[in-house]
Amino acid sequence: RGFFSRQELGSPEEKPQFPGASAEFVDHLEFIQPNVLAGIPVYRVMDRQGHVLRPSEDPQLPKEQVLKLYKTMTLLNTMDRILYESQRQGRISFYMTNYGEEGTHVGSAAALEPSDLVFGQYREAGVLLYRGYPLELFMAQCYGNANDPGKGRQMPVHYGCRERHFVTISSPLATQIPQAVGAAYAIKRADASRAVVCYFGEGAASEGDAHAGFNFAATLECPIVFFCRNNGYAISTPTAEQYRGDGIAARGPGYGLLSIRVDGNDVFAVFNATREARRRAVAENQPFLIEAMTYSNPQESAPNSPTSLPQTRPPSAPPKSWEFRAFRIGHHSTSDDSSAYRSVDEVNYWDKQDHPISRLRHYLDNRGWWDEQQEKSWRKSSRKMVLEAFEQAEKEPKPPPHLLFSDVYLEMPPRLQRQREELERHLETYGEHYPLQHFQK
Amino acid sequence: TSQVTVRDALNQALDEELERDERVFLLGEEVAQYDGAYKISRGLWKKYGDKRVIDTPISEMGFAGIAVGAAMVWLRPVCEFMTFNFSMQAIDQVINSAAKTCYMSAGSIGVPIVFRGPNGASAGVAAQHSQCFAAWYGHCPGLKVVSPWSAEDAKGLLKASIRDDNPVVMLENELLYGVPFEMSEQAQSKEFLIPIGKAKIERQGTHVTLVSHSRPVGHCIEAATVLAKEGVECEVINLRTIRPMDIETVEASVVKTNHLVTVEGGWPQFGVGAEICARIMEGPAFNYLDAPAVRVTGADVPMPYAKILEDNCIPQVKDIVFAVKKALNI
């Protein structure tokens, strides 16, 4: 009995029997239109004035937690401004700010369990900050000083923290995506209550690794949440040149992923989506895709109050009251000057209208949980904390030279041991010719 | 002892390591239901199931990345490339992720992974399926690279690689899979390991040192037999490991024989032989050389398809004999 005997030929109930897809037959020629004009809608909880639109969607987080969200976002912003400046002044070699992403980092981090494994790309410092990583260690990594758990091995912002389940940042784009899937697979086998969250930008989602990662996550049935930060630009490449489909969220269903698009400037929308995605990913062993829309605003402006760093540009006119709209939301990195490819109008709209920090501030105000007095006091104390950590980090010595040879393999091979000993002997004899005073012994 | 093919030796090694440690698992294209593209994993999926032997979609960068991520957490993946030629699609994951992560994470993330598969020339598979990657992977600190020849090598090195906590690249050879070798009872035991980083002297000799890895080792032994009839006794060294290279064994041999010939299937420029020659120059054995070292390598062209051309693009016994005579000036 063959294929043709399964159904009567020409019967109206004839169904396709292809192993590769299950669907109906259709008898008129029609191409599926990629829908970019009316694409996947953007989920939000608050309007731009911080009012919750639909009360049932308010996650109703306790005051302390919302204050923690706010303080983490603002502290991140402060740290960014100071470290960005320090790079422009040649004090550190490189920096990447998180401007405009504060909501995506903190909203998602708050929705995770502390032991959920995080694979970031390089613009997720807020996740680590939310998990309690001290300013001292952020600075230590950027300065590559002797306190850096990374032993000064990497460029700035390549943080990693085993204790806080934040995998060390790796430069090549999107390579973390299939790795996160593999880790989720391993975690599924070991522990049914843990999730993996994998962050990447909309540009990195063009990489082949991303395609493979999404595909495998579905076929291997992994407890993973893919979190795409779509900020409209990949260095100078606008999304119109990065893709022609409806963003990243629209790709999800193609791979078998449950997908959603959220307003990345709305910390509660990010929180809700991440929390639910995480819960179901673990309960159902299936991957989820969240695309958080934000904006990366490069406009230069000075901070609202003076810092003790020498200013490299004159301060602009102080913004109205406490609004954070004027904070520089950044260039791709310190190696970029985006004024070359952004129009000023584009930048001003976002700057004045929308920012994750402003929105949350409105929410806090609406509830009477924060005021101008606390704002002033917090600004002062957070800035002081950052500056103190920064000044201290600058004073610390660099890691000892012999660390050059360790960790190439888990155990040091004889050849490297010999070379290390050779260096030690050399320094014993000729040490005075080297700036050893800057290095830890 | 008994005759065991390289394929069966590899299969034994995988079976034993899967049984011994539940963290070990095998992934790659066709490794499960098809028993492996070259049948190396025959019977393993049936025995260990979906969790331990995984068929992956066709994406080397995908499954290599998955394997690296799994290794970073707690598993010990054996990641099979259908041929190392295809590993180029995944090479960022192998080098930038697997090899460098321990260093770049300052020792906090280890990657106990084995990448394995056939390497080098096969028969009639032309340019994109015949490249030797010993030099490419051997170049990178953070990786260990092994290249077995005999069944014993294959088994002992694969087991040692799986048990090693560092990322290891194991370069097999498709033409060797079906070749039977003598395997001692000891070699067939479950605890038989070959240390990574130690070469083996396959044949003692006094007139010239032949250094090789993988399939050409067999050609060297044949060449040695031919040359013995003319009174030339070759010492044949099977490197077994490309990185870390056991140059000390080579040096000791050159000190004895005063002549060096390297033999490899890969291309000459920046190859394994080039590295051996450089290191001999840098070490004590240089003063014992009575003649410049001679390299026998694959021809410096992409591998042609036509059989007569292909045969002449890889080192043959006659090429090795010729090189020895050149080194000895006879």
TrEMBL record, chain A:
Domain Dehydrogenase E1 component: 70-295, 323-401
Biased composition (Polar residues): 296-311
Record's subunit section: Heterotetramer of 2 alpha/BCKDHA and 2 beta chains/BCKDHB that forms the branched-chain alpha-keto acid decarboxylase (E1) component of the BCKD complex. The branched-chain alpha-ketoacid dehydrogenase is a large complex composed of three major building blocks E1, E2 and E3. It is organized around E2, a 24-meric cubic core composed of DBT, to which are associated 6 to 12 copies of E1, and approximately 6 copies of the dehydrogenase E3, a DLD dimer. Interacts with PPM1K.
Name listed for the protein in its UniProt record: 2-oxoisovalerate dehydrogenase subunit alpha
The protein's required cofactors: thiamine diphosphate
E.C. number(s) listed in UniProt: 1.2.4.4
Keywords: Oxidoreductase, Thiamine pyrophosphate, Transit peptide
Primary gene name: Bckdha
Record flagged with keyword Magnesium: no
Catalytic activity entry: N(6)-[(R)-lipoyl]-L-lysyl-[protein] + 3-methyl-2-oxobutanoate + H(+) = N(6)-[(R)-S(8)-2-methylpropanoyldihydrolipoyl]-L-lysyl-[protein] + CO2
Pfam family, one: E1_dh
Top EC class for this record: oxidoreductase
Function recorded in the entry: Together with BCKDHB forms the heterotetrameric E1 subunit of the mitochondrial branched-chain alpha-ketoacid dehydrogenase (BCKD) complex. The BCKD complex catalyzes the multi-step oxidative decarboxylation of alpha-ketoacids derived from the branched-chain amino-acids valine, leucine and isoleucine producing CO2 and acyl-CoA which is subsequently utilized to produce energy. The E1 subunit catalyzes the first step with the decarboxylation of the alpha-ketoacid forming an enzyme-product intermediate. The branched-chain alpha-keto dehydrogenase complex catalyzes the overall conversion of alpha-keto acids to acyl-CoA and CO(2). It contains multiple copies of three enzymatic components: branched-chain alpha-keto acid decarboxylase (E1), lipoamide acyltransferase (E2) and lipoamide dehydrogenase (E3).
Ranges where the record places region Disordered: 296-321
GO BP field: branched-chain amino acid catabolic process
Family the UniProt entry places it in: Belongs to the BCKDHA family.
Molecular function via GO: branched-chain 2-oxo acid dehydrogenase activity
From TrEMBL, chain B:
UniProt GO cellular component terms: mitochondrion; pyruvate dehydrogenase complex
Entry's EC annotation: 1.2.4.1
Pfam families: Transket_pyr (PF02779), Transketolase_C (PF02780)
Location within or outside the cell: Mitochondrion
Record domain Transketolase-like pyrimidine-binding: where: 4-179
UniProt xrefs under InterPro entries: PDHB_mito-type, THDP-binding, Transketo_C/PFOR_II, Transketolase-like_Pyr-bd, Transketolase_C
PANTHER family linked to this entry: DEHYDROGENASE RELATED (PTHR11624), PYRUVATE DEHYDROGENASE E1 COMPONENT SUBUNIT BETA, MITOCHONDRIAL (PTHR11624:SF96)
Protein's name according to its UniProt entry: Pyruvate dehydrogenase E1 component subunit beta
Organism of provenance: Piprites chloris (Wing-barred manakin)
GN (gene name): Pdhb
